[in-house]
Amino acid sequence: MTEFLTVDGGTLAYDLSGSAGPLVVLAHGMGDSRAAYRFLTPTLVDAGYRVAAVDLRGCGESSATWPSYTRTDIAGDLVALVRHLGGPAVLVGHSIAGGAVTIAAATAPELVTALVELAPFTRKQSLGIGDLRVASFRRGMRHLLGTALLGSTAQWQKYLEVAYPGARPADWDARLGEITAMLAEPGRMKALQGMGRTTPVDAGAQLGNVRCPVLVVQGSADPDWGAPRAEGEAVVAALPPGLGRLVVIDGAGHYPHVQFPDEVAAAMLTFLSDVRA
């Protein structure tokens, strides 16, 4: 059942699964909703965690219109939710939310026990000749730019087709329909565009201030980078020594937790078991 939390600027929608155990908060990427974690949540609950999946500002059932959509804004929302639910918590963030959970951990360390960053945009990005030589990167960037400039759901769908190379979930068509319907609601595409205009500079500036263990998960076929493994390694290298570890899911694109939920869950549970130990 959807629950709501009012924060400065609007209302966040979330659902809570599991009645006991350590708290895990799941934050999705832009243009998505908490349904992105529909496959991962049951596994975490079965493993003994209490799981809150939240719709980011502007997404899902959260308020559509907000003053801004930076990673720092999203981090503040997540911190407020953890406080509301009686943290501390493990924060899991995908894409833009990967940067947001970094900021949350650095600015509210007493509320965050560990981070899992899924294909995170956590560092300032630089475009290189090597990136442009990768066909999937060029296609993905073309459709992302089309979405940002035109506010086009058709361009976003084309991006998602590139972002999910190979294996796709059984409910792919139905999920695309849900995303398209969400983005057609007033303010939702504006929120996606607002997130797309932000940069990860605020998150990158906080990587060195994180004090909890961090798991970075990258897909080997993620089209958002010309070299996704190298991006994951760079995030780990920017953290204080010994805090970060990287897992690369072979064949996964920008949504490893949807394409390969069992592999991502196994990596997360191993990591969280080490953290608890």
Q: Give the spatial strand order of the biggest sheet.
A: 1-2-4-3-5-6-7-8
- Alpha carbon gyration radius: 17 Å
> What is the CATH H-level superfamily?
Alpha/Beta hydrolase fold, catalytic domain
* Percent of residues in beta strands: 15-25%
Poorly predicted runs of 5 or more residues? none
CATH class: Alpha Beta
What is the straight-line distance between the termini? 33 Å
CATH architecture annotation name: 3-Layer(aba) Sandwich
How many beta-strand runs?
Answer: 8
Mean of residue pLDDT? 95
Helix content: 40-55%
Q: Major sheet, described briefly?
A: 8 strands, mixed
Overall 3D geometry? globular
Number of domains: 1
Q: Remind me, CATH topology?
A: Rossmann fold
Number of helices: 12
Overall structural class, as computed from helix and strand content, comes to alpha/beta
What's the helix-strand series? EEEHEHEHEHHHHHHEHEHH
What features would you describe in this structure?
The chain is built from twelve helices and eight strands. With 277 residues, it is an alpha/beta fold. It has a single domain (3-276), classed as Rossmann fold (3-Layer(aba) Sandwich). Helix 1 links the parallel strand 3 (23-27) and strand 4.
Summed up:
By secondary structure, this protein is an alpha/beta fold.
Question: Keywords for this structure?
Answer:
single chain, 277 residues, alpha/beta, Rossmann fold, eight-stranded mixed β-sheet, 12 helices, 17% strand, globular
